[in-house]
Amino acid sequence: MKKAPAQAFVDGVLTIEGEPLVEVRRSSIHGRGVFARRTIAAGTPILEYLGERIDDAEARVRYAETSGKKVTYLLRVDARTSIDGAVGGSAARFVNHGCLPSCELLLHKKRVFLITRRRVRPEEELTFDYHLVVRGDVDLETARKAAPCKCGARRCRGTMLNDDRPVRR
Ligand SMILES: [Zn+2]
Questions:
Q1: C-alpha 4 to ligand 1 mean position (Å)
Q2: Is the pLDDT assigned to residue 2 strictly greater than 80?
Q3: Who is most buried in 43, 101, 146, 165, counting CB within 10 A?
Q4: Confidence (pTM)
């Protein structure tokens, strides 16, 4: 009988027989991105979002510190917990936003995984929808422009924000 290939997460990246499924490279969307090294089936948990787990108060402090800078690696897990991928993070923090994404986040026992929504081709850049929302009294149109999207999808929203409130003009 053929043995199933050995799978393991190494530094938050799924590897099969010691070969990581993805790698970090320069991206045409933004900065660095994560790319498939082989065909990946739909429903595969490819990456785990690693980093320091912090409470909501600390997340607000760090978010305020990073505002103005282009990049933040804070990921909200639930109302109480966020993961700061800038501290001990995995390759998952480099996955760019896409409006028609190949991946989505999966919460499993308080751990966050990136799972494929469809088959991914070799060399394809992985994306997920950041679903950014505005907190507090911030002008929506300003916020949308502050988080532009260049994912290149045919129905690109033009912003990483996904907030259904009407635009104030
Ligand atoms: Zn887009």
A1: 38
A2: no
A3: 101
A4: 0.87
Nearest 5 degrees, angle CA 163-CA 164-CA 167?
90
- Work out how many domains the chain is built from and give that number: 1
- Asked if 83 contacts 51 with a C-beta cutoff of 8 angstroms, the reply is yes
Q: How many angstroms is it from 92 CA to the middle of ligand 1?
A: 19
**Ligand 1 centre distance from Cα of residue 29 (Å):** 9
Alpha carbon of 129 to ligand 1 centroid (Å): 9
Q: Is residue 103 part of a domain?
A: no
The boundaries of the domain holding residue 67 are: 52-87
Query: What mean pLDDT, rounded, does the chain reach?
Result: 89
Distance CA(116)–CA(101), nearest Å, equals 9
